[in-house]
Amino acid sequence: MDTPAREGLLTKYKTVVAWHARRIQDTSPPGKRRKLSAPTCDTCDATLSRPFVCLSCPFAGCWSDEHITSHLIEAGHSFCVDTRSGSVFCADCDDFIYHPAIDELYLSTVVLIEEQRTHFQVAKRAREHYQVWTPNGEESAALKDATVLPCQGRRGLLNLGQTCFFNVILQSFIHNPLLRNYFLGDRHNTRLCKHADCTCCEMDNLFSEIYSSNQSPFGPTSFLATTWKVSAEVSGYSQQDAHEFFITALNQIHGTCRGSTNISCNCIIHQTFAGQLQSDVTCERCRNITSTVDPMLDISLELKGMGGEMGGENSLAGCLRRFTKPEKLGAKEYSCSKCTKAHEAVKRLSIRKLPLVLSFQFKRFEHKTTSKAVPKKIGTPVRFPASINMAPYTTLVMNNLGKDEASSYPGPETMYEYDL
Length: 420
Fold this sequence. Notes:
There is one protein chain. This protein has helices at 3-25, 67-75, 100-117, 137-143, 164-174, 177-184, 199-210, 221-230, 242-255, 268-273, 316-323, 395-398; strands at 52-54, 60-61, 79-82, 88-90, 95-97, 275-283, 289-296, 299-302, 327-329, 345-353, 360-363, 365-366, 376-377, 387-389, 417-419. By secondary structure, it is of the alpha+beta class. The chain has a five-stranded antiparallel sheet, covered by helices on one side. It is globular. It is built from twelve helices and 15 strands. Helix 1 (3-25) packs across helix 3.
């Protein structure tokens, strides 16, 4: 590729990345935002929540129906970019490509937009421009005999008295790269925050402590005290449920985070954990399908089968298959909106939208409905693979079961792969 063509692709790439960065940096209330139409696919006119843009022309298309890849092949263009992640897809390779220069260009473009739109300004001065630090001669001499400290966040957490549930969730937050980059990148400044009992401030302090040079164990007493103040359901000195604290912490971070809204929220929590579940109910009489889409922050999986027996396959994939397995509904449980009669139906759950970070929760407590006894814990072990492909459990793939195209997934399999 000659130099002018390469520069043209890089310029178009920066423009696309900057456009998406401006959208997610818009923290004004929805009612005050400019009324801009959502991008649509140039082939099917479908509204695009995740546009893919050709780097050689103005074409924007959807990935699910392969309109963007069809355009690349028909037009003889090589590259398109995912506006959300900045990932570049190569039509010649039929795969996403990764290059340090692309990563550096993506980060520099996003940081520039953040600097222009930051709300943390003093005396009406804009945020200081980010510059890569290169040590001069004097600084290099001072660093010559310095001790290099690890920066992987290896500092442990102290148990504050039956706070295992608390520490295990904090550890999962600490090792989440998206949360780490957000809080270590000064996206939430504790000194300038105006919220009382702010969970985001506690997260900011937590990351500062964990990634400091101090390697002694850290006791998150302030975080625990703030949690007690804002969430009575997980307060007190008794052992609490880790999943309940996980959801509570996500809601509190969402509520005190920049960009938090009730509609189309673009806060760090929803950017990281938010997905969508789809429930399809098919009437056995008229075959009418009623679909409902609900937001999700995690997926709760049963360890027992429909009849209460222990599942035959105690693995993550087996639990997911039971989660998406069609379920029979009795005539008293469903009334069809089309034939206006109560009739038996089949309900099926699927994942409509996969989040960047997918969280699973196993229902390990069995509650007896006929007595007030203490819930019984299900201690069966569950096998986890090193990675899992979530494509078979998505709405798009499940709707294509039985069709000719069901043998292959739309797009590269890397789009559905999760490391565990």
